[in-house]
């Protein structure tokens, strides 16, 4: 009976742990001017506040801590400093001031210690109650009912958690692919702009050369015309 009672208490504690994991608030206040790259994605760091500006770092991973220097609401970009000291611009929509996964993990570890202490306290209570069989039987009956409820709750939580993990995984993969495609598109747009600029310069030079040749011909052609026969007889 002692082993069975301990098993019930463990189920209660671990079920409470799973419930705590799902109910952890994620709107904690971050330090002033410190932000993180949001979600699972790769964000390009640029030399200016436009997708046409040169890319300084093509893929800053989510969770990377950056220091925000200022926001440009008109362009939708923010000037930041990354961990290696590089200063650049990235889109403000990719920044979040909420704590990332490692902060949530720390809170989970603290909750686990609390649950563990609660388990030890309950175990001590059990040791004190085992000398009184009648009280232990009443407590066991009550715990069995609670255990039944907890087992059902844990089963439902497992289903929800499994579905959430699959959805989150697919969502993150789609976001990552989308961000990489955005980077490639931005690079192609930048290359296209440079090629267009070079093409305009080339046409300008060709036109100037054609005008110059025309001027030279206009000056030289009258001078090389053949003399008339009347002048030859004189």
Count all strands and give the number. Answer: 7
Assembly of the depicted chains: single chain
The whole-angstrom Rg is 37 Å
Give start-end ranges of low-pLDDT stretches.
21-30
Mean pLDDT score: 77
Characterize the largest beta sheet: strand count, sense, and whether it forms a barrel: 5 strands, antiparallel
Helix count from the secondary structure assignment: 4
Helix content: 55-70%
Which secondary structure elements does this structure contain, and how are they paired or packed?
Blueprint: H1 2-23, E1 34-37, E2 42-46, E3 55-61, E4 65-72, E5 77-81, E6 87-91, E7 95-96, H2 101-129, H3 133-220, H4 229-233
Antiparallel strand pairs: 1-4, 1-7, 2-3, 4-5, 5-6
Molecular structure report:
There is one protein chain. The chain is of the alpha+beta class. Among the domains are: 2-26 and 100-162; 34-96, SH3 type barrels (Roll), CATH 2.30.30. 62% of the residues lie in helices and 15% in strands. The chain has four helices and seven strands, in the order αβββββββααα. The longest helix is centred in the last third of the chain and has 88 residues, at 133-220.
Keywords:
SH3 type barrels; alpha+beta; 7 strands; two-stranded antiparallel sheet; 5-stranded antiparallel sheet; 62% helix
Quick overview:
With 234 residues, this protein is an alpha+beta fold. The chain has helices at residues 2-23, 101-129, 133-220, 229-233; strands at 34-37, 42-46, 55-61, 65-72, 77-81, 87-91, 95-96. The chain is built from four helices and seven strands.
């Amino acid at each position: 009976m002692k082993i069975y009672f301990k098993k019930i208490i463990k189920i209660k504690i671990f079920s409470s742990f799973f419930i705590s994991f799902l109910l952890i608030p994620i709107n904690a206040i971050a330090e002033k001017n410190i932000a993180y790259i949001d979600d699972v994605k790769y964000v390009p760091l640029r030399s200016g506040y436009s997708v046409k500006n040169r890319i300084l770092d093509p893929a800053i991973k989510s969770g990377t801590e950056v220091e925000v220097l200022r926001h440009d609401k008109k362009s939708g970009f923010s000037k930041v400093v990354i961990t290696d000291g590089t200063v650049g611009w990235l889109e403000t929509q990719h920044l979040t001031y909420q704590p990332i996964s490692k902060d949530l993990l720390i809170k989970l570890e603290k909750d686990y210690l609390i649950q563990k202490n609660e388990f030890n306290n309950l175990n001590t209570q059990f040791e004190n109650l085992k000398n009184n069989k009648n009280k232990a039987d009443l407590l066991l009956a009550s715990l069995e009912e609670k255990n039944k409820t907890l087992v059902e709750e844990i089963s439902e939580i497992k289903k929800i958690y499994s579905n959430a993990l699959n959805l989150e995984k697919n969502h993150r993969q789609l976001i990552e692919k989308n961000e990489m495609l955005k980077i490639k598109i931005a690079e192609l747009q930048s290359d296209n702009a440079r090629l267009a600029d070079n093409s305009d310069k080339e046409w300008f030079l060709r036109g100037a050369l054609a005008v110059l040749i025309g001027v030279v011909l206009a000056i030289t052609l009258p001078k090389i015309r053949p003399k008339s026969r009347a002048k030859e007889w004189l």
